[in-house]
């Protein structure tokens, strides 16, 4: 076992910069953005240099009412194997709701939403985590998420909820200190209490990221510099026990390379200030935390991650042969969550998500104002993703694109992914006689028609679409 060190989130937009940045020990990549059979050349070069690559999933929805999708688990497992990863990470969140269990339309959030911190929700989460652990070739770590709202009737604090999750499943933790700060501003949570309740021996690594406060709401943008409050939380965690790894997340508005290097240096300084004897590079891995640090007892080292040789052995071993070696999954027989608990969770999550993406009334007990803020944030996020996947739309619609898309998205859930979303939005505009400029409307029709078929339009089809576009009035 070994520590990870200091790393940065690998994104295609900064791939060259990441390769040049000094002192990058490891990188994290969004798992869904990597095809196991076609690993990007930049990641291959990093791996050849000995840089560890960790896949970070965003779509399992382990906090949802349904059991994890087998195809998604298989793809995540294949990605971990292709990257020779020592572990994989995901989130304590739900990302979809509805469907057969609730006899309602399936809904996608396009976002990581918080789960209720109740005993029943914990039962469901624990079973889902166990299923994922059995399907993955390497250990799993789960991240705490940022939230704009709280569920009514929470029975556990966030720290205690995570601690019991670890106790019952052996899963490791990815602690995002930026998310702790977000929840302090938005929900009044106490990050010091959460850090005190966490089982630090289970921490695999830590996320650090920037955001911005607008009108009393903290937005976890991953597009702004890391604020001092987040670095202070990193220092508080490192004072208790130095994490095996710390990673800088940046997903948008990428700064110059020098600014990224400076943020990584600030992270290293905060971790080093905890004391050289407690730095991951000097501390033996897998030294458990026996007690909180005191003046007479130094802070414990945290659980490390398997080195790549161990990970490779696990990935290639038969499933049955891997079980005794897995420290993240206790060997005792575990109980499935009651189906009644899944049913109740499903109904609650479907009602909430419907309010957020379909414009239905807020469920009883929720802060309606906060749900409206979350709904607007989700609609804006959809608009941004669609603009990146279909850049022709903001070009055609100009400054009116974002306002038009947000108005469309507030009451129309995604029906089949972001590319379908772009086509549905264009069709919606055309059906309502927009844009007002007939020349723009004709170009929009042609754009939609050439992409709406099952196959890319050939030359003959494009000629037909052009002729029909000329008839649009």
Parts with pLDDT < 50 across at least 5 consecutive residues: 276-301, 318-325
> Mean pLDDT, nearest integer?
88
Number of separate strands: 12
Terminal Cα span: 67 Å
Report Rg.
Answer: 23 Å
Q: Trace the largest sheet across and list its strands.
A: 3-2-1-12-9-8-7-4
Approximate strand percentage: 5-15%
Could you give a short account of the major beta sheet? 8 strands, parallel
Shape: globular
Helical content class: 40-55%
Total of helices: 18
Order of H and E elements: EHEHEHEEEHEHEHHEEEHEHHHHHHHHHH
Provide structural commentary.
There is one protein chain. The chain is an alpha/beta fold and 473 residues long. Helices cover 45% and strands 13% of the residues. The chain has helices spanning 15-20, 41-48, 70-82, 119-135, 158-169, 177-187, 191-197, 228-240, 257-272, 308-316, 319-322, 339-357, 368-389, 392-397, 400-409, 418-431, 438-451, 459-470, and strands spanning 5-9, 26-30, 52-56, 88-91, 94-99, 104-113, 140-143, 172-176, 203-208, 212-214, 217-219, 245-248. The protein has an 8-stranded parallel sheet with strand order 3-2-1-12-9-8-7-4. A two-stranded antiparallel ribbon has the order 5-6. A two-stranded antiparallel ribbon has the order 10-11. Helix 5 packs parallel to helix 7, helix 8 (228-240) packs parallel to helix 9 (257-272) and helix 17 (438-451) packs antiparallel against helix 18. It is globular. 42% of the residues are buried.
